[in-house]
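From the methods appendix. Each design record in this collection lists the tokenized structure first, followed by the designed amino acid sequence. Records were kept in a plain field format so they could be parsed without special tools. The example shown here is representative of the layout used throughout.

RECORD:
FOLD TOKENS (325 positions):
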């Protein structure tokens, strides 16, 4: 079992934390990454694309594969298959360190199906899901959830205890309610209360956008590890920054040119993995994030949004790079 003590973790982000992004996050110091969320129901239907989301390359460990759904039997089946490398459409036989259950996603389509954070409103069902997954999985099961459904029903402490009693090996808590989606700022007091309430490792998540934030989160809440989502978008440097700060080392922020080079490297990795036709439209948002805050980036982002090939992206970014001298 991975020891979730003092780990800097890349949060699961659908449409974002694919192999390319995870690889880069690791190169910059992330200790553990979580996949994009995988639909247990889609696995039941033997969906091919879902298998791709759960692929693990040799250099992509340690990793947690995150699943979502609300039917205990279906979730258990997904845990069984993924933890043993047995899902027919996942070719890689490298096994995940953990199976993570998504009980925090706030998106309407997900919660209206009874998945994600909807499970925070049905603690008995959530418990049954965790128990069944723990029984079926060959890997430790972790659970990611929020402060509660809305401010009238904050139940993260009760939920955390339930997860521990149901057999979860670690939990990740995002200090917002479902109703808050991603704004306003996360309330770390909830994270602190959860940490106090359970013995299993607690991973704190929400609004860590710098090394100082990470250190503040640990000091304020006592969490065992921290998890970073949006703070890593276009900024995988954040992992290096946190590591340096924690070890008392100096850290130099990346230059504009380093960011452009990384945007190109990231795009290349995506193209190698998914092919140009899929990768370039998906890479546009990453490139935009890398360019955020850089001088004169607006026309460059517009041009990138029309690029269809790696060569075009390369030309646009190389021109921008040269103009920065
Ligand atoms: C684009 C995007 C996709 C996300 N997808 C998932 C997901 O698939 N599973 C999950 O548990 N959380 C997901 N999240 C939530 C993040 O993991 C994290 O909990 C949240 O962004 C708060 O952390 P942050 O303030 O560091 O971003 C997503 C967030 C974003 C912004």
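DESIGN:
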């Amino acid at each position: 079992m991975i020891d979730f003590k003092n780990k800097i973790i890349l949060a699961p982000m659908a449409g974002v934390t694919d192999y390319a992004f995870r690889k880069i996050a690791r190169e910059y110091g992330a200790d553990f990454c979580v996949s994009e969320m995988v639909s247990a129901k889609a696995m039941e239907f033997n969906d091919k694309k879902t298998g791709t989301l759960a692929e693990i390359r040799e250099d992509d460990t340690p990793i947690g594969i995150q699943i979502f759904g609300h039917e205990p039997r279906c979730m258990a089946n997904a845990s069984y298959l993924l933890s043993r490398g047995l899902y027919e459409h996942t070719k890689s036989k490298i096994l995940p360190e953990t199976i993570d259950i998504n009980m925090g996603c706030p998106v309407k389509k997900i919660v209206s199906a009874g998945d994600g954070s909807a499970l925070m409103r049905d603690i008995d069902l959530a418990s049954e899901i965790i128990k069944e997954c723990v029984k079926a999985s060959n890997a430790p099961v972790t659970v990611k959830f929020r402060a509660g459904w809305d401010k009238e029903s904050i139940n993260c402490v009760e939920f955390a205890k339930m997860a521990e009693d149901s057999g979860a090996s670690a939990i990740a808590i995002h200090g917002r309610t479902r109703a808050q989606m991603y704004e306003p700022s996360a309330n770390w007091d909830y994270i602190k209360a959860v940490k106090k309430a359970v013995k299993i490792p607690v991973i704190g998540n929400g609004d860590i956008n710098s090394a100082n934030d990470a250190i503040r989160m640990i000091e304020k809440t006592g969490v065992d590890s921290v998890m970073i989502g949006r703070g890593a978008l276009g900024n995988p440097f954040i992992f290096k920054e946190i590591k340096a700060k924690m070890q008392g080392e100096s850290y130099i922020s990346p230059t504009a040119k380093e960011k452009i080079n990384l945007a190109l490297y990231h795009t290349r990795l995506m193209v190698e993995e998914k092919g140009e036709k899929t990768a370039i439209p998906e890479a546009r948002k990453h490139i935009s994030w890398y360019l955020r805050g850089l001088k004169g980036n607006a026309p460059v982002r517009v041009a990138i949004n029309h690029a269809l090939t790696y060569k075009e992206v390369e030309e646009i970014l190389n021109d921008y790079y040269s103009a920065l001298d």
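APPENDIX NOTE: The chain has a mean pLDDT of 97.
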